[in-house]
Amino acid sequence: MKIVVCIKQVPDTVDVKIDPKTGNLIREGLPVIINPDDKVGIEAALSIKEQIGGTVTVISMGPPQADVALREALAMGCDEAILVSGREFGGSDTYATSGILAAAIKKFGHFDLLITGRQAIDGDTAQVGPQLGEKLHIPQVSYVEEIKEVAEDHLIVKRQFEDGYHIIKIKTPCLLTAIGELAKPRYMTVDGVMDAYDKEVKIYGFDDLKDDLELDMIGTKGSPTNVYQSFPKQLKAPGTVLKDMTDDEYVNAIMTKLEEKHVI
Amino acid sequence: MSKGIFIIVEQRNGKVQNVGLELIGEATRLKADLGDDVYAVLLGYNMKDEVEKLYHYGADKVILVDNKYLKDYATEPYTKAVAEVVKKFDPEIMLFGASSIGRDLAPRVASRVKTGLVADTTGLRMAKTEQELSQEAAHGCKTPERALLMTRPAFGGNLLATLMCPRTKPQMATVRPGVMKKIDKDESRKGELIKLDVEFTADDMNIEILEAVKAEKKMVDITEAKVLVSGGRGVGKDGYEMLKACADQLGGEVSSSRACVDDAACEWAKPEMQVGQTGKTVRPDLYLACGISGAIQHVAGMENSDLVISINKNDTAAIFSVSDLGVVGDVKKILPKLTAALKKYNEAKANA
Ligand SMILES: Cc1cc2nc3c(=O)[nH]c(=O)nc-3n(C[C@H](O)[C@H](O)[C@H](O)COP(=O)(O)OP(=O)(O)OC[C@H]3O[C@@H](n4cnc5c(N)ncnc54)[C@H](O)[C@@H]3O)c2cc1C
Ligand SMILES: Nc1ncnc2c1ncn2[C@@H]1O[C@H](COP(=O)(O)O)[C@@H](O)[C@H]1O
Questions:
Q1: How far is the CA of B171 from the centre of ligand 2 (A)?
Q2: Contacts with B124 from chain A: Cβ below 8 Å
Q3: Of these four, B77, B195, B210, B319, which has the most CB atoms within 10 Å of its CB?
C-alpha cells in the first residue's frame, strides 16, 4: 500500500510567547516539533506498512527549516520525504495550503491512502485535511480513532463523534485524519537517525507545481481569508469578591453571574 | 448579489442539536445590522417535525432537504446538499457548528464552492468602523458594509485573531458550540418552508457505515468538560456527593486539587481529577472552585478557564485574585443551596 502522510512543523505551543505590541507570535528561538496529530498519522502509516507492506512518504509545506521535521519522520522509519517550499506559498491560509499540497500530491503520483492530522496546534483549524480530500476528489473519514482492518482496496475504521462512533468501510484511495487515540508514536531509532541524514529530501517549488495550482488562490494575496488583527488573550482582571452577605444572597449573585455569562 | 444568513442546523438521530439553535440566535443579531433574512438549512431524513422549532427560535425561512441518504451523517451526501444550497441561493454568510460534524463538513464545502472558512469562531460581527470598512476594501471587498468579522482563538487559546473573508462568498465560519446564545422561544413565530430536492445516486454514498453507535458515557475526562466543579481541602473527605450534585445540575464534572488528591483520607479525589501543574490543564467555560486556596501550581492549570467563581471562607485566599466572582463563606452551606437553586432553574426551563 502506498501511503502519504502530511506533516506540519509547528511551534511547541507550551512555550508560546506573543509580542504584546503587534499581537503576533514570536517565532524566533521557539522550539519546533512535528505537529502531534501528524506524528500519530506517521505511526499509523508505519504500522500499516508493517502489517501488509508498502511505502510511507511524508510531505510538508513550509520554509526550508521544515526539513528537520521531515528528517525526523525518516528517522522514525518513513521511506521518502518531500518538502514543498517557495516564496509564493508563504502566508497561505487553509484553502491555499490545501490547494498547494494537493498539487504536490498529484505530482507525487499514485497513492492508496493519505493521512493528515486532524488539527495542527498552531492554527487549530482542522481544515486542511478535509479541504485536501475535496481537492483530490477522494472520500474521507476524519476523527479516526482506530483502524480495524486494512486491505489493498479498502479500510475499516472507527470514527469518533462527541456522543458515539461510527464503524466505516472506505475504499481506497481515501483520506483519513488522525486523532491522538489512533496510535502512540514510536521514537526515532539510532540507525534511523543515521539513515535519515543520508536520505534525500525532495524539494517541490512553485515551478514544479504551477500547472496544477489555482494561481490566484495561493500565498498571502490569494488566500480567501486574511487576518484583520490578532491580539493576546486578555489576562483575567481580578473580579468582585463578596463578603458579609447571607448565603442566599451569595447564591443569587452566583446565579446572576451564570446567567449573564450564558453558562445556564 | 449574495444575500441571506444561512445556518446549517445540525441534527443527530433526527433531533435538532442545540448548537443549531444557538447559531440561529446569533444570526438574528447579525440580521439587525445586515438586514438579510435568516435561513435555517435542515438536512436529514423524516425531519418535518423539527421544522416549526426553527421558526420559534428565530429562523425566517427553513430550507429542508429530506432524503434517506442524509439519515446518518456522511461527508459526501451532506457536502453535496450544502453545495447545492450555495449554488441555488448564493448566501452572503453561512455558519456551521464547530462540532465533529461541522468541522468535517464545512471545509469540504468551502473547498467545493471555492471560498474561505474561519475555524471554531467565538465572536462574529459585521464590519462597521471606518478602519474595518477600509481594511475590507483594501483587501478587495466590494461590499465592505456587508463584510463579516470573525474572531477565534488560536495557539491553544493564547492568541485571539479576527479574520475576514473579503473576496469570496459565502463568508463561512464554524462556530464553537455553547458560545452563542439562543433567543427566547416564541411559538407564535412563523416562517416559510422551502423544500429542496437534491438528487443523490448510490455513488454519493462513497463510504459504508457498518455500525452507528451512541456510546454510553465515556470515562470522565476533565480536560473535555465544559463545567468543572472543583473541590479542595476546604471540601474535605466527605465532599464528593455535594460537588457531584452541583456538577450534575450544571452538566459538568468534578475535579480537585493536589492537596486533596494526595490526602489519603480524601478517597474520592482520584489522580485523573487533579488540576494544576502536576495535574491537568483545563479550560472549561466555568470553573467553580470550592474550598480551594489557589496555590500558584493549581492556578497554572485553570487560569485560562472562561469564568472562574470561587467559594472560600478565608477572604485572603489567593484563588480570589484569579476569580471573576468570589464569595467569602462556608462552602458546605453555600454549595448545597446553589445546587438547589440550579435545580429549580433547570426545572423551570424544562417546563417553559
Ligand atoms: C491566529 C490565526 C488564525 C487563523 N485562522 C484561520 C482560519 O480560521 N481559516 C483559515 O483559512 N486561515 C486562518 N489563518 C490563516 C491566515 O488567513 C493566513 O494564513 C495568515 O494571514 C498568514 O500569516 P502567517 O504569518 O500566519 O503565515 P506564515 O507564517 O507566513 O505561514 C503560512 C504558511 O505558509 C508556509 N510558508 C511560510 N513560508 C514559506 C516558504 N518560504 N515556502 C513555503 N511555504 C512557506 C507555512 O508553512 C505555513 O503553512 C489564521 C491565521 C492566524 C495567525
Ligand atoms: N503546511 C503544511 N504542510 C503539510 N501538512 C499540513 C500543513 N498544514 C496543515 N497540514 C496537515 O493538515 C492537518 C490539519 O491542519 P490545520 O488545518 O492547520 O489544523 C495537519 O495536521 C497536517 O497533517
A1: 22
A2: none
A3: B319
